[in-house]
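Lesson 9: reading folded outputs for more than one chain in a single document. The general rule is that every protein is listed as its sequence immediately followed by its structure tokens, and records are never interleaved. Here is the first one.
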Amino acid sequence: MIDFDVLEGEIKKGKIENSYIFCGLDEELIKEGVNLIVDKSIDKSLLDLNYIRLDGLTTTFEDIMNACETMPFMGEKKVVVVYRSNFFKDKCDASLTKLYNEVLKYLKDLPPYTVLVMYYLFNDKRDTPKKSSKIRSLEKLTKVVYFDKLKKDRYYKKVEEIFKEKGKEIGKVELRYFAEKVQHNFDIIKREIDKLISYADGRQITRADIDKLILNSSEDDIFDLIDFISQRKVEKTLELLNELLSTSDQHMLIISNIANNFKRLYEIKILVQNGENINSISGKFKLPTFVCEKLINQCNKFTVKQLQELMKICLDTENKLKTSGVDKNMEMELMVFKIFMLK
């Protein structure tokens, strides 16, 4: 398995494999990897004839095989890209499992003139290729490329290029502050840059603007945790909680943040029931509208009574951690189970 930097280095040297599996959260970065292969393999004048894209959600094995088997037109290579290749999910239905098995077998007999690129987007920022049994099993047959975070200098440069493409200059200090605070996903980064540019409305972007529009990573993690709870995803909730506890031994701070998030959802729930609109709620909480939209969606998954009980569960757990010598991690996990048992 290699990363994007290694892939780019290999392509520059003219080393292009017969097949690839691209995976990660950042589709914009993955598309950049695809473009590198396409630009190196196919003459631009023959792009329409020798570059084929197939939707992995709707394509069949016959579609993939036919695209790969057809000889390139007036060139040495053709590139076939299967995007949204959800048949790489460990848990999928019978039809996708069948497609995966057929592709697995076909990779051994792929024509030498075809470069097959299949890419799969992870659902969660904590997913990795090592957690996927299907992707691990394919490493001997194809080149797996994991599109994780770019190295810092390159990452900063790429973020700066996006600002320039959109016709907006940003100071070096503000650029780095924004780049470190935003999620390292270029699809998200582009949307957040659009929001910043719109919010600044022609003036210089400041650190205060960034603070107002971009969530802190810790707040983002707590938001994800509450979201998993609202979707009744026990395993994901525990996995994220354990990750938070392992990276930061601050049990009281974490539980306080969880409780505060439930409190905010409770207050928003009451305002919504009283007929308040989103602009009014945004003003009261001093939050951007798009953040309020997400919070309203979350609070709609709970009743007022449930949110009251959730705050009580958090408070009881916080008091136990303060007043007794209990195992803190175990007590936090017990809190999660109490939350999911709540009717």
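And here is the second record, again sequence then tokens.
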Amino acid sequence: MARDIGIDLGTANVLINVKGKGIVLNEPSVVAVDTQSGKVVAVGTEAYKMVGRTPGNIRSIRPLKDGVIADFDITEAMLEYFINKLNVKGFMSKPSILICAPTNITSIEQKAIIEAAEKSGGGKVYLEFEPKVAAVGAGLDIFQPQGNMIIDIGGGTSDVAVLSMGEIVTSRSLRLAGDKMDAAIVSYVKNKHKLLIGEHTAEQLKINIGAVYEADEKQTMQVRGRDIATGLPREVEVTATELQEALSDVMASIIAAAKEVLEMTPPELSADIIDRGVMLTGGGALLNGISQLFASELHVPVLTAEDPLDAVALGTGVLLDNIQHHKQY
């Protein structure tokens, strides 16, 4: 028998939840390709190690951009590699797949995601919106007639949504998230310190000392890069306060989207959100001070999910069970 799987097809990482086993795969959404032969050289963690470090004939590609498929063939190859690695196919049957997408995705982009999952070895493919799945994975009971608000800050998109009765009532999806934060850090270090750093280094800065509210000036990290003037390698010290400054524009846009969603929310559901608070999920939820920043701007309690990085993948497992349950009746 094939085992049903839930896939969090993220811009930065792919997480796969196998029914009955939980999350069994968490690898970067990167594929290394030999440009001369067109062959896939490495997928996932191995390919991620090659980013910015490959010779001219090998290219590290991130096939998803801003939460949607930018390169269909490479996405299909990546999914096929991961699904085969897990050995979830049955002798005569294919696994059902539940896969997630941002809320502002077009019908053509939806079709591309479903098609990629089918071609990579899936049987029946279900598509669900990311904030709904993340809310379920974070432990919210979205199937009751009460308002639940979620802010999911991933790698390519930030999704803000209010849910009730198992459906999205109002939502906004921004193509502004972890990747744009990394780009903002690269730009800031270039302008402030006259140093060119790679996206890997920017990501490490964000993970280690990234802060968005009342940053601790004593928190610092040494980074190495190329001096703009001399072209030679150089090391500088970056502080958490500088990172707060670097990330301020991206955070302001996400806060503006959250305020928009709250303005469009029916009054009864708004009252529920004051009681229940807002749930933060995704990698962005791990930034220092992020819950305090949202709480001060939105004037409602803000909580961070227990496993913010795994919330979407955990939610796919719960929703897959629901789908299977409904099939039996």
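What the second record shows: The chain is about 40% helix and 25% strand.
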